[in-house]
Specification:
single chain, 736 residues, alpha+beta, four-stranded mixed β-sheet, 15 strands
C-alpha cells in the first residue's frame, strides 16, 4: 500500500456541473428511508524469469504459540486457485513479463476515458513499510457473532457459517491468535521486537500469504479474493493492528496492479495478477527526490530506442520494496511538459535485473520495509511494456491512487485500534488514590474523545470502501476526503491514548512500546499515496461547485442506502471507470443534502433530539463551508484560506457519512448499541463539529461524549474490533 503521495486533482472537466441538491441549498424533505509474501530473503531482486507456482492450500505453519499448526484453509477466504482457475492446482505461470506482456491479439483493456488528468495532481513519494509487544491465546476460532439484524431496506446478508458481516476478518484474526500473548509471533511483543531490530516480518508475511491476504485487492476473475473493498479493509485491519509493517510487506503491489487494471491490456493484467498470486511484489515508482510532491517536475525519461522499444534513464526515489521487488511499474517522462507528458511501463524480472537498486533509506515507522531508490542508466524496455497509451501514464496512476488512498486507511484504523485498546486495558488495571484510573472523569473524557475520533474515521472508511465499488466514476472527491479524515483523526486518537499511559507512555517496554510503534507507523501513512497538502488542494478545488444550484436532474444522487450496507454483496470493481474529472456529483454530499432533514426527523422519532440537533448543525455548517469556498474562489483576498475550508469540509463530510450510516442501520444499531440507539452518533457528530470549527473537542459536553467511551469499552470487553458491525477478535479478556 505504500506508494508515493500525490497531490491535488484539478477540476479541468466542467461538464455535468449540475448537482441535484447542492450542499449549499436547503434540501427538500424526503420521507424515503434508506436500506438502511514470502520473506525478502527468498526474493531475488533480479528475479529469475520463471515464476514459481503458488502452493494451493494452507501450508503447515508456526502457530501463534510457536507450535506447528496443521495445514488448514480458511473457509471464508478461498484460495486464488479455487476462485480463479476452478481447480485445486494452479496453472503454470508465464515465464516472465516479456511473454505475458506481448499483445498477441489482445485488445487494449480499460484505456483511459476522456476525462482530463489533473494537471496539478502532484506526488511525493514514499513507498514501503516492519513487528511489536505481547499477544492472546493462539488459534481459538471466533465464537460466532450474533446474527446480523434487519436493516431498514431489507434483511442484511449474513455470511454463511458465522452470521457475521465480515467472517473473513474474524477467521483471519483467529488464525493469528491472541496478540497480547508474549509468545505469539503474530502478537504485539513480537512486533515491537522486530521493529527494534528494523527487521522485515518474514514469518508474519508468510502466514498472511498462506491465508491469501496479498490477493485481497485482486479481482476474483484474475485469481484474487476481492469481493468487497469493505471486506478487504476489515481483513487488512485485523492483520495490521498487530503490526502495520505487514501491510506493505504483503499488499504493496496494490498501486501497480490497480494502475494496470485501470489502463493496461488483458495480458498485462494477467501478468501482474500472476506475479502477486506467486507471492511476488510489484513496486510502484513515481516520485523523484528533486521534484518532491510536484510530479510534473519529474525528469526520469523514457525514450525510443533506435532498434525498437524504449530506454529508461534517471532515478525514482523512496520506492516501497524497491530493493526486493520482482517487478515495477514506472511512470517516466516522454514529452517536454504537461500531465500528458508521462508514460507508464511495466518492468518484469528480466528488465528489473538491469536496474541498479540503491540501499534502503532508514525510516522512523514501518521499520524493516525497504524504501529504496531505483536508478536507470539506459535500461532497455520492450515496446509492449507500455501500460495504456503513450502519454497516459500519469492519468492512469492518479486514477489508481484513488483506491490506494482508501486502502491505506486500514493501517490508520488498525494502529489507532491498538493504541486505544492498550490504553483501555492499562487504565482498567491501574489505581490512583485507591480508585481505578479508568473511572475518573479525566480518563473517561479522553477515552471518549479517542473513541469518537476512531469511530468517525471507521464509519467514513467503510462507507468509502463501498462507494469505490458502487460508483467508481464519482469516487474522486471521497478518496481524498477519506485519506485526510482517517489520517488526521486516528493520529489525534493515538495521541490521546498515549497520554492515558502517563509516564509509561514513553518507556521502551510495556504498553508504551506498543503505542509508540503504533504512533510511528500511523504517521507514515499520512504522507504516502497522497501528501496532506495534495489532499487538501484536491478538496479545495472541488468544494465550490457544491454551492451551485441544480442544473441537470441526471446528476441527482442515486439511492444512498447501499453506501452504508456494510458487508453486503457488491458489484465487481471496475478499475477502468475510475475518473479524474471533478464534478459536483459526490454521492455522500448530495445524498446528505437530500436526506438530512429526514435523518433528523427520524432521530427525533427515536428519542435522540440531541443527535437530531447535531445533524442540522452539520447541514448548516456544510452549506456555509461550500459557500465560503465558492466566495474564496472568486476573491482569494477575502475570507478564509481555501485549504482551511477544505480541511473543515473533510470533517463535515465525515459527519454527513456518519449520519447516513446511522439512518441506514437505525433498525439495528451500530457499535454495539441497541436498535435506534444514537449515542455513538451524538459523540461522533459533536467531536467532528468541534474539529471543523477549530474548537477544542475537550470542551464538548460530557453528556455528548459519554456514549463513545461506553461503546469502545463494551467492544473491548467482548472483544470486538472498534468498528461499526461486529468483528470478533481472538484477544484474551483484559482487566475488568
Amino acid at each position: 500500500m505504500t506508494t508515493p503521495p500525490t497531490a491535488a486533482e484539478r477540476p479541468d472537466d466542467k461538464s455535468g456541473q449540475a448537482a441535484a441538491h447542492p450542499v449549499g441549498l436547503t434540501p427538500r424533505a424526503s420521507a424515503e428511508r434508506p436500506d438502511a509474501t514470502p520473506a525478502a530473503a527468498a526474493e531475488q531482486p533480479g528475479g529469475a524469469s520463471a515464476i514459481p507456482e503458488r502452493p494451493a492450500g494452507l501450508p503447515a505453519a508456526e502457530g501463534p504459540d510457536g507450535a506447528s499448526v496443521p495445514a488448514k484453509r480458511l473457509d471464508a477466504v478461498p484460495t486464488a486457485a479455487e476462485r480463479s482457475h476452478g481447480a485445486s492446482a494452479t496453472t503454470e505461470r508465464p515465464a516472465g513479463p516479456s511473454a505475458a506482456l506481448r499483445p498477441g491479439g489482445w485488445s487494449a483493456a480499460g484505456e483511459r476515458r476522456d476525462a482530463s488528468p489533473a494537471a496539478a495532481e502532484q506526488a511525493q513519494s514514499t513507498s514501503g513499510a516492519g513487528e511489536p509487544a505481547a499477544g492472546p491465546s493462539g488459534g481459538e476460532g471466533p465464537d460466532g457473532a450474533s446474527a446480523v439484524g434487519e436493516r431498514p431496506g431489507g434483511p442484511a446478508v449474513a455470511a454463511e457459517g458465522t452470521g457475521a458481516a465480515f467472517p473473513g476478518a474474524e477467521s483471519l484474526d483467529a488464525l493469528l491468535g491472541d496478540p497480547w500473548r508474549g509468545g505469539n509471533p503474530y502478537g504485539f511483543a513480537a512486533a515491537v521486537a522486530r521493529d527494534g531490530r528494523a527487521e522485515f516480518p518474514h514469518a508474519f508475511a508468510e502466514r498472511l500469504e498462506s491465508a491469501d491476504l496479498p490477493l485481497a485487492h485482486v479481482p476474483a476473475g484474475l485469481g484474487g479474493t476481492l469481493t468487497g473493498l469493505d471486506d478487504t479493509l476489515q481483513r487488512v485491519r485485523v492483520a495490521t493492528r498487530r503490526d502495520a509493517a505487514v501491510m506493505p510487506a504483503t499488499l504493496l503491489s496494490c498501486a501497480a496492479v490497480a494502475t494496470v487494471l485501470a489502463a493496461g491490456t488483458p495480458g498485462q493484467a494477467r501478468a501482474v495478477a500472476d506475479w502477486v498470486h506467486a507471492g511476488r511484489t510489484v513496486a510502484f515508482a513515481l516520485s523523484e527526490e528533486h521534484a518532491g510532491s510536484d510530479v510534473l517536475a519529474n525528469t526520469c525519461r523514457l525514450e525510443e530506442a533506435p532498434g525498437g522499444g524504449f530506454t529508461l534513464t534517471g532515478s525514482k526515489w523512496l520506492v516501497g520494496r524497491g530493493a526486493t521487488a520482482h517487478a515495477a511499474l514506472v511512470v517516466a517522462r516522454t514529452a517536454p511538459r504537461g500531465p500528458a507528458a508521462f508514460t507508464a511501463v511495466l518492468l518484469g524480472p528480466r528488465e528489473l535485473a538491469r536496474v541498479r537498486r540503491a540501499a534502503a533509506h532508514p525510516v522512523t515507522g514501518m521499520r524493516g520495509i525497504d524504501f529504496a531508490d531505483l536508478v536507470f542508466d539506459g535500461t532497455p524496455v520492450p515496446a509492449d511494456a507500455v501500460v495504456g497509451a503513450v502519454g497516459g501514464g500519469l492519468a492512469a496512476a492518479m486514477r489508481a491512487q484513488q483506491l490506494v488512498r482508501l486502502l491505506s486507511t486500514a493501517a490508520c484504523l488498525a494502529t489507532a485500534d491498538t493504541a486505544l485498546r492498550t490504553a483501555l486495558r492499562f487504565t482498567r488495571s491501574r489505581k490512583a488514590a485507591g480508585a481505578a484510573v479508568a473511572g475518573t472523569a479525566h480518563t473517561e473524557r479522553d477515552i471518549a474523545l479517542a473513541g469518537a475520533e476512531l469511530m468517525a474515521a471507521d464509519v467514513l472508511s467503510l462507507t468509502a470502501a463501498r462507494y469505490a465499488q458502487l460508483s467508481p466514476g464519482t469516487f474522486g472527491l471521497c478518496s481524498h476526503v477519506v485519506k485526510r479524515v482517517a489520517t488526521r483523526l486516528t493520529a489525534s486518537s493515538i495521541v490521546r491514548s498515549r497520554g492515558l499511559l502517563g509516564a509509561r507512555g514513553f518507556l521502551a517496554d510495556g504498553p508504551g512500546s506498543v503505542v509508540d510503534k503504533a504512533q510511528r507507523d500511523n504517521a507514515v501513512v499520512e504522507s504516502i499515496d497522497t501528501s496532506p497538502l495534495g489532499v487538501l488542494r484536491a478538496v479545495a478545488a472541488q468544494l465550490p461547485a457544491y454551492a451551485e444550484p441544480p442544473q441537470d436532474a441526471r446528476t441527482a444522487p442515486r439511492d444512498v442506502r447501499a453506501l452504508c450496507a456494510y458487508g453486503e454483496p457488491l458489484p465487481a470493481l471496475d478499475h477502468t471507470a475510475l475518473d479524474l474529472a471533478a464534478r459536483p456529483r459526490d454521492r455522500v454530499l448530495l445524498g446528505f443534502a437530500e436526506h438530512a432533514a429526514t435523518v433528523a426527523a427520524r432521530l427525533e422519532e427515536c428519542g435522540a433530539p440531541r443527535a437530531a440537533e447535531l445533524v442540522r448543525e452539520v447541514r448548516a455548517a456544510l452549506a456555509a463551508t461550500v459557500a465560503a469556498a465558492a466566495d474564496a474562489r472568486r476573491d482569494r483576498a477575502a475570507g478564509p484560506e481555501p485549504l482551511d475550508l477544505a480541511d473543515s469540509g473533510c470533517l463535515l463530510y465525515a459527519a454527513a457519512a456518519a449520519a447516513l450510516a446511522w439512518w441506514a442501520h437505525s433498525g439495528r444499531g451500530l457499535y454495539g448499541e441497541r436498535a435506534d440507539g444514537a449515542g455513538w452518533l451524538t459523540a461522533v457528530l459533536a467531536v467532528l463539529l468541534a474539529h471543523a470549527d477549530g474548537r477544542d473537542p475537550r470542551r464538548v459536553p460530557a453528556g455528548d461524549l459519554a456514549p463513545a467511551a461506553e461503546a469502545v469499552t463494551r467492544l473491548d470487553a467482548d472483544p470486538q474490533l472498534f468498528t461499526a458491525l461486529p468483528v470478533r477478535l481472538s484477544d484474551a479478556p483484559g482487566p475488568a
